[in-house]
Amino acid sequence: KAGVTQTPRYLIKTRGQQVTLSCSPISGHRSVSWYQQTPGQGLQFLFEYFSETQRNKGNFPGRFSGRQFSNSRSEMNVSTLELGDSALYLCASSLEGALTNYGYTFGSGTRLTVV
Amino acid sequence: SQKIEQNSEALNIQEGKTATLTCNYTNYSPAYLQWYRQDPGRGPVFLLLIRENEKEKRKERLKVTFDTTLKQSLFHITASQPADSATYLCAWGNNQGGKLIFGQGTELSVKP
User: Fold this and answer.
1) Which among A45, A50, A108 has CB closest to B100?
2) Contact between chains at A104 and B105 (C-beta distance less than 8 A)
3) Inter-chain contact A48–B95, Cβ cutoff 8 Å?
4) Is the peptide bond before B112 cis (omega within 30 degrees of 0)?
5) Does A43 reach chain B within 8 Å, measured CB to CB?
6) Of the four, A18, A36, A102, B80, which is 20 to 30 A from B95 by CA?
7) pLDDT (tens digit, 9 = 90+) per residue, A33-78?
C-alpha cells in the first residue's frame, strides 16, 4: 500500500511569507502528527490530529497551525516565516495514534528553507 | 522537565559485532518506548515498541529492553552489517494520544 506522502519535497520561502505543507496519510489511518526536525533540536512534536480534531499540541508559537480533512489528509501552515523555521517537517500517520505495535509511519518530509 | 537522552552521538563498530545503543529518560514514566531508524534525507522508520510492563522485545536481529528502575532502554543489533549504518532514535509516549518525545539520536557506523 502507498506510504505517507508529503508535498512539496523542497520549498524556499522568504522571511515574513507564509507556507502550507500537505500530508496524505496511509489509507485507513486516522491519526496524523507533525514534527519539526533541525540539527540543533532534533525531532520536536508540533501537533496531532485525529478524526479532524487537534488532539495534542507541542510547544510552538501560534504561527504554526494545522488542520485535518474528512479524508484524513492534513495540512500545516506557518505564517510570518522566520529564519529559524528552516527545518525538515515530517508528517507521521498511524491507525489510532497511541499504543500500537506498528508505531508511526513517517513521510520523507518537506525541507523548508527560509531566506 | 521531561527529558530523553541517547548515550552518544556516534557509535563505530566492526561488522559482525553487536551494537548496543542506550536511551535514558528522566522526570516521567513513559507508557512505552519506540525505536526508529533514520537514513539521511528520509523520515524515521519504525523498528520496535516496548511497553512499560515488558522487559524485552525481539525482532530478527534486533532486541530492545526496558528497565523502569534504571529508567533506561537498550537497543541491540546483533551480527551488525554495513547496511545497518544509520541514525537510531528512541522516543517515548504515553497513553494520551499521538505525541512522541524523541531523543537526539545515535549515529551508528558499521565498518566492513
Assistant:
1) A45
2) no
3) no
4) no
5) yes
6) A36
7) 999 999 989 999 999 999 999 988 999 999 999 999 999 999 999 9
